[in-house]
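queue> holo job accepted (NAP)
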Amino acid sequence: MLRIAIIGSGPAGCYLADQLLRLLPNSSIDVLERLPVPFGLVRYGVAPDHQGTKAIARVLDRALSRDGVGFFGNVEVGRDVRLDELMSLHDAVVLATGATSDRRLGIPGEELPGVVGSSAFTGWYNGRPESQPPPAHGVRSAVIIGNGNVAIDVVRVLAKCPAELAGSDLSSEATAWLQAQPIETIHMVGRRGAADARFTGHEIDKLGTLQRAGPFVVDPAGLVGESAVLETLRRFASENRTTPVTINFHFNLTPTAFLGDGPLRAVQFRSAEEGVVELPAELAITCIGYEAVACCDVTTQNGVFPNQDGKIRDRLYVVGWAKRGPSGTIPTNRVEAQQVAQKIAQEVNTSNRVGGSGLRQLLDQRQVRWVDYAAWHHIDAAELARAGEGRSRQKFVTVAAMLEAAQLLPLRRA
Ligand code: NAP
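queue> job finished
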C-alpha cells in the first residue's frame, strides 16, 4: 500500500488522485489544500459566467469522495505542516500547487494603483479569500494586455451587463463594483499580430454577441491569414454595431510604461509603424501568464518546479501548471495525471510510513482547524442554499465564514 500526499486540490491534484487510485487501488491518498474548499482554478480562475466549465468540479469532487482519498482543507504546507514532515509521513509527495503568481511585465509604473494582474483580478471576481477589489474608480477606459483566453474572460466580464451575468457565481462585491463603473471602452492589446493571438475562435466569437458591448478592430488591414480567429475578427471589422461599450482590438503593440501621477492615467506602447502609442486607462489588467511559487525549500525556475517528466527528486513529484507552466485546458491535466501516476507507480516503493493517520495526529496536536470531505460539503451546501435569485452559488469570501459553515468540532481527535 502506497501512502501519497498531494498538495493542491485543483484539477491537476484531483485528476492525479483519481489516476493513482485506478493504478493502485489499495493506495491511500491525502489531498491537502490551503483553503477550506477544494478545486483551485476551477473555483477561483474559471470565469463565473462559464458555469459549464465550472461543472467539471463535480468530476473532481467524485475523486475526493472515493475510498482511499482523504481531504485536508485549510492546511497550508509551510504554515501548518512542513514539506519534510509530509515526506516522512508519506511514501511520495506531489506538488499540484498550480501557478498562482502573476507574471510581471517589468516596465515602469507597474506599481501604480489601477494596474492589476489577471490572477488577482479573476481571483477577486471569483470571491477568493484575501483578494482585493481593483484599486480603481470611475473606470471609463480599461486596457487589457495579452491575447490569450484569460484576457478574453476578463474583457467579457467587464463588458457584460448585469442581466448577462445572471446565473453566474460572480461575487456580490464584484457585481456591485462592476455596476458602479461608467465603462465605455475596453482596449484589448496584443504584442504580436492577430494571426499569433493565443485565444480560441470559440472564445472570441462570444465577444460579438454581447448586449451592451460591441467589438471594433482598430487596424482591419492587419488581419492577414486564415484561421477561425482571423475570420471572426474580419467579421467584427465588417459589422458596424453602435453599442454603449466598445471593445477595441489592437495588435502589434508592445507595452512600455504605465503612466500616471498617483492613479493610472494611460498605458504607453511601442509600435513598429506608429512609434509611441498611448491608450487612456483608469484600469489596466495584465493577462500575460502565471508563475508557480516556491513550496518550503523547493524553489522554482522560470515559473515552474524543475522536473524530469514530473519528478523533482526522489519521492517528490509535480503535476499541472506547477510542472509545465500555465498552458492547456482542464482535460490536459487528466492526460498528464495518467503519465505521472504511472511514473510514481513504477518508481515508489511501499514502506512503513503512516500516511493520513499521522498527518491527522500532527494537525490535531497543532490545533489546526482542518476541513475534511464531509465538512467541505457543509460549506458547499451552505453556499448553494444562500445563492439567491439570479446566482448559481454565493461563495463565502473569508476563511472564517467558510470554517463556520463547515460546522467543525472544536478539535478533532485522530
Ligand atoms: P496564454 O494563452 O499563454 O496568453 C498569454 C498572452 O500574454 C499571450 O498573448 C502572450 O503573447 C502575452 N504576453 C506574454 N508576455 C507578454 C509581455 N511581456 N508583453 C505583452 N504580452 C505578453 O495565457 P492565458 O491567457 O493566461 O491562459 C493560460 C491557459 O489557460 C491557456 O492555455 C488558456 O487557453 C487557458 N484558458 C482557457 C480558457 C478557456 O478555454 N475558456 C479560459 C482561460 C484560460 P505572446 O503570444 O506574444 O507570448
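queue> The chain has a mean pLDDT of 95.
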